[in-house]
Design a protein that fits this description.
With 710 residues, the chain is of the alpha/beta class. The chain has 20 helices and 27 strands. 33% of the residues lie in helices and 22% in strands.
């Protein structure tokens, strides 16, 4: 598809008066005389379509201000910009935490500006539409700068900032003052780059901003402007000992950039002041929109009855059946009565406690703002608290508060008040994720005990059919777990001899395939201890899939394992689908095998953490932290799974999701009582919940009672 069709005039003829941005199909015709060449697709569709990011920000800093003002810039506005880099002339500068620093090795101001412009063009010139250059003693309103570039055309050569006259120069020729920041378009940067060397050799100046302005004027004939396309670049020059909180000038309130900022404290005070201004503007805009909604609601078919609360927020979710009703969680200031672990009561702590405290404080603030100065409320006690998450609008709260109301004359009265609050969902953001590919090799690890021997043949058959026959990029390693008694008799009777024979048959059938095995002797097959052995025998970039013998491997799941596991970022713990006991579900009837019954008679086993996808490097990093924590107490490992290692000893994302491609036939698992109480309990619970659904169990009990009665 071409991005733009040829302009056409009225009547269907081409003409300059009208632009029609209709796509047209460009036919592909390969020259038969030329050899065929495979088309290489780009990694991202954004690159292939030629899209650019909106804004790149460069902050010029120095040795004296790197650890002060530059840090203040990083803590105030850096996270509001899509990409921000710091540039300095230091050779070996120690980079403060959370900052990306480019050191040029020469502290001369003109040289720093030259190297910065050259670096920006070389590394980011083809990726961004706009380039904003500022100093670390400048406070810039990030949201205002981002809004400014959205209103400017990218097809023009733009040099926008606070226009200043050259000393003793032409009045028409102006440069952009570096202290207030300036904006350069991509087209201007591309045209300027070939002349940077000439500017460095021919133009003499003390100030880097004057040097750059003279370079742009002399070679491109473009002067700095303070307004363009109806957009103004407002700035404000701070006087000494300025109090930002007391500045009421309209010029200061509307400023995109403020300069000079003398110290870190002033930078933080400016950020607080302008953040408050933006917040007040947002609240005022919300009130205006709510008033417009109220005025227009009366004209709708539903009338004022269709007005929802809060105004402008989606109406609550309306359930269609009793299974869709969203339940409320009850809480007090000390306890929560709907706990993550399933217990009926637990202490209110962490994020939940902060949430409750904040919502009570917000309720009091809203009450006081509505009734003051006639009444002033203070909290005595939270009588009842309810909350629920509504996916259509956000978190809803209902609070019963015991309040003390004080009048203007000082009279007080105790009363109970019910308030309702909503914490609405904010704007959806796209989180950048590292690139992954479906071509990564997956290393399957299958631990086997004596109790698993009856299921190995089916596992190997499915592995051969879905990976070896399809030439999927997957390998298999078997882990034979010998009981000490069986290990002593292995020379006479090897309990895994049959499995080894099956592996030999597979290797004969697939000559290029090798299936290694590792033998381990232990009474307690700790998942962490087993992975320690496997991890040492594979490269650090290995992608492991820790499987169980009941798993039926297929290409669909392996691809999701590859895509959901990201090195140094995310690990994947799928929730497999466990089929119910056919003897209870079908009770002698023939098992249904149609495709419509897929994932019907079973459940997703959320008690099992046996399957996992992770990179060896991530496991080794987390395992090292675990070793430092437990020292030589290896018995602790018997109560842990790989999931616990990543949960407590890594900062990675734990991606836990149901996996429809991971289906397991019913089998009664053998629960090892030597494991920790929690692991043993989860294993027993998994067996019990995997028997059948409540309706199937009820029917089986009913039939049994009927049989006993007769």
């Amino acid at each position: 598809l071409a991005g733009r069709a040829r302009p056409e005039a009225a009547g269907g003829r081409p003409g300059p008066g009208r632009e029609d941005f209709r796509p047209r199909i460009v036919p592909y015709a390969r020259d038969p005389s030329k050899p065929y060449k495979k088309v290489l697709r780009t990694r991202y569709i954004q690159t292939e379509l030629g899209f650019h990011e909106r804004l790149f920000v460069a902050v010029l800093t120095s040795k004296a201000t790197l650890n002060t003002l530059a840090v203040a810039v990083n803590k105030t506005v850096a996270h509001h910009f899509p990409r921000l880099l710091y540039f300095t002339g230091l050779r070996s500068a120690k980079v403060p935490h959370g900052m990306v620093l480019v050191a040029h090795g020469d502290e001369r101001p003109i040289w720093l500006m030259y190297e910065t412009m050259h670096y920006i063009h070389q590394h980011f010139g083809s990726d961004y539409d706009w380039f904003y250059i500022m100093q670390d003693d400048t406070y810039a309103q990030a949201e205002q700068v981002k809004a400014l570039v959205t209103h400017l055309s990218i097809n023009q050569d733009v040099y926008l900032g606070r226009a200043e006259e050259f000393i003793g120069g032409d009045e028409q020729a102006r440069y952009c003052h570096g202290g207030f920041g300036y904006l350069i378009s991509r087209s201007l940067l591309l045209k300027l780059h070939p002349h940077l060397d000439s500017c460095r050799n021919e133009i003499l100046s003390v100030r880097p901003d004057e040097w750059l302005g003279r370079c742009i004027i002399d070679f491109l004939g473009i002067a700095c402007v303070s307004q363009l396309q109806g957009q103004h670049y407002h700035t404000y020059e701070l006087a000494k000992n300025t109090e930002p909180e007391k500045e009421e000038e309209e010029e200061f309130q509307a400023a995109l950039a403020v300069h000079p900022v003398s110290d870190m404290t002033l930078m933080y005070r400016l950020h607080k002041h302008f953040s408050r201004i933006q917040l007040d503007r947002a609240y005022q805009e919300i009130q205006d929109l709510q008033m417009q909604i109220r005025n227009l609601t009366s004209l709708t078919p539903a009338g004022e009855a269709g007005l929802t609360w809060p105004v402008g927020i989606n109406a609550p979710f309306l359930p269609k059946s009793r299974f869709e009703v969203i339940s409320w969680d009850y809480f007090t200031e000390q306890h929560l009565f709907s706990c993550p672990d399933g217990s009926p009561k637990c202490e209110l702590s962490g994020a939940s406690k902060a949430d409750v405290s904040e919502i009570i404080e917000s309720a009091l603030e809203q009450l006081n703002s509505r009734y003051q100065p006639l009444l002033r409320f203070s909290k005595r006690q939270l009588l009842n608290g309810y909350r629920r998450f509504d996916p259509t609008r956000g978190m809803e709260y209902t609070l019963d508060l015991l309040l003390e109301a004080v009048t203007q004359k000082g009279h007080s009265h105790i009363l109970a008040k019910r308030v309702s609050l909503v914490r609405p969902l904010s704007k959806v953001e796209i989180i950048p994720m590292p690139y992954v590919t479906e071509a990564t090799r997956v290393q399957l690890v299958l631990p086997l005990t004596v109790q698993d021997l009856d299921f190995v043949a089916n596992f190997l058959d499915m592995f051969a059919m879905n990976t070896l026959d399809t030439h999927d990029n997957a390998l298999l390693t078997l882990l034979f777990i010998y009981h000490p008694y069986d290990a002593q008799r292995v020379s006479q009777v090897d309990v895994f001899a049959g499995v080894k024979a099956m592996v030999g048959e597979l290797e004969k059938r697939y000559a290029e395939v090798k299936i290694p095995w590792i033998s381990v002797k232990t009474e307690v097959p700790s998942q962490v201890k087993l992975m320690d052995i496997v991890s040492k025998k594979h490269p650090v970039d290995t992608l492991f899939f820790l499987a169980s013998v009941w798993t039926e491997i297929n290409m669909e799941f392996l691809n999701r394992c590859r895509m959901n596991t990201i090195s140094n970022w995310q690990v994947f713990f799928p929730v497999h689908f466990q089929e119910f006991n056919p003897a209870l579900v079908y009770r002698g009837e023939q098992t249904a095998s149609s495709s419509t019954d897929f994932l019907r008679d079973g459940h997703f086993d959320r008690h099992s953490f046996a399957e996992a996808c992770f990179y060896n490097s991530d496991y080794m990093t987390a395992r090292t932290k675990l070793a430092a924590d437990i020292l030589d107490r290896d018995e602790v490992l018997e109560s842990m799974e790989v999931f616990d290692v990543f949960l407590h000893y890594s900062g990675l994302h734990l991606f836990r999701a149901v996996e429809p491609g991971l289906v397991q036939k019913y089998a009664l698992r053998s629960c090892n009582p030597r494991l920790s109480e929690e692991l043993y309990h989860r294993c027993v619970l998994s067996n019990l919940e995997g028997l059948a659904s409540r309706s199937h169990l009820a029917m089986a009990l009913f039939e049994q009672e009927q049989a006993n009665s007769t």
